[in-house]
Amino acid sequence: MKVFESKHHFDYSWEQVTAANWQKYPNELSTHVVSVDILNREIDPEKQTLRTERLIACKQPIPRWLRSIVGGDECSFVREISEVDLKTKKLVMKSENMTMNHLLSVKETVTYTPDPSLENTRTIFEQEAEITAFSSFKSICNKIEDWSVERFGQNASIGKKGFESVLHTLTEKWEESGVLVKDVGSSIMKEFDEVNDKTQELVHEVTEKTSTVLSEVRKLGLWPRK
Hints:
Helix content: 25-40%
Order of helices and strands: EHEEHEEEEHH
Distance between the termini: 72 Å
Largest sheet: 7 strands, antiparallel
Low-confidence stretches: none
Structural class: alpha+beta
Oligomer: single chain
Mean pLDDT: 82
Strand order of the largest sheet: 1-7-6-5-4-3-2
Number of domains: 2
CATH class of the largest domain: Alpha Beta
Number of helices: 4
CATH superfamily of the largest domain: START domain
CATH architecture of the largest domain: 2-Layer Sandwich
């Protein structure tokens, strides 16, 4: 197993980075990401968390020697699960490859947190990937893992530049429209409120229907029984 690690910062607030994260793809630099689909989204109003599951499709050329081992085409799929925690101001994204995972496993964890020294204007990005190749021959495993770490590093560098571009573009749009992204939680909390309102409406509706049914039952002398 080989480990890839990276740490840097973005000169934007955690709220801005978290809001822009959903608009990260597509961008003009990270062309290897061809599609992103949301599979599931869950909101916990009490914990103030948003959990999202996405399917990411990537397409990149691979060396001929590797293609002869793994076969298949150049398109691969990645399952990503992320959680935004508004209370702790932490965004954690965990992903794992679904394609050819019996030959190569790539488990990545990305974390976005405010910089303690510049909490309102800078966000810390931390990335770790565990890369494991499976083969009867150790030399082949090492070669695949070394290549994967190198490719991962290239994509990470391109991804950082691409995200910087997205952040810059979105910030300009926010400033032009007079929108200040001070609290990414505002949109999520709006969803929390909508969920709570719908829940209250449902409870009220059920209570009314239950009262009506009980009233009819009492008229028929079926309840309560003595």
